[in-house]
């Protein structure tokens, strides 16, 4: 974030060097990206192979669905941390919950042959291509 130019008002009567709330919101929300699942999709002659990084998400908390030509990957992760002192008094308690969801439009595949595996935080989904592409053309008459 260093060395970024931030527009300022050059108003003669503006004695405030910056707008705290505007800059705070800009800086705070800039760190969050809508796409938190890093994904690669490879295409071969026979299949599509999708690899998605889901580190720390247990396998049982990952759902994969394919419906109407759209592949959906969802994952959830929850942690509960507690620290106690020598006397058993609670010193710190933290809870966090995160969820991710990505969708991909991938058509003309054999739905019944989709396979998925999860190892070392990487989800690998293999989607064999249909033998022939399904044409979705329709001539539209002009009135």
TrEMBL record:
Family annotation (PROSITE patterns): SHSP
Protein known as: SHSP domain-containing protein
PANTHER family associated with the record: HEAT-SHOCK PROTEIN 20 FAMILY MEMBER
Domain SHSP: 30-143
Organism ancestry: Bacteria, Bacillati, Bacillota, Bacilli, Lactobacillales
Recorded coiled-coil stretches: none
SUPFAM superfamilies registered for this protein in UniProt: HSP20-like chaperones
Species: Enterococcus raffinosus ATCC 49464
Family recorded in the similarity comment: Belongs to the small heat shock protein (HSP20) family.
InterPro entries noted in UniProt: A-crystallin/Hsp20_dom, HSP20-like_chaperone, Small_HSP
């Amino acid at each position: 974030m260093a060395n970024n130019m931030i527009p300022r008002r050059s108003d003669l009567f503006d004695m405030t060097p910056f707008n705290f709330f505007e800059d705070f919101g800009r800086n705070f929300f800039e760190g969050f990206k809508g796409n938190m699942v890093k994904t690669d999709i490879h295409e071969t002659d026979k299949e599509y192979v999708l690899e998605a990084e889901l580190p720390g998400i247990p396998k049982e908390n990952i759902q994969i669905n394919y419906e109407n030509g759209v592949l959906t990957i969802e994952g959830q992760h929850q942690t509960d941390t507690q620290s106690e002192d020598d006397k058993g008094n609670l010193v710190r308690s933290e809870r966090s919950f995160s969820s991710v969801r990505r969708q991909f439009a991938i058509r003309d595949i054999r739905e019944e042959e989709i396979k998925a595996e999860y190892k070392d935080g990487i989800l690998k989904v293999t989607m064999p291509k249909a033998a022939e592409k399904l044409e979705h053309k329709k001539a539209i008459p002009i009135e």
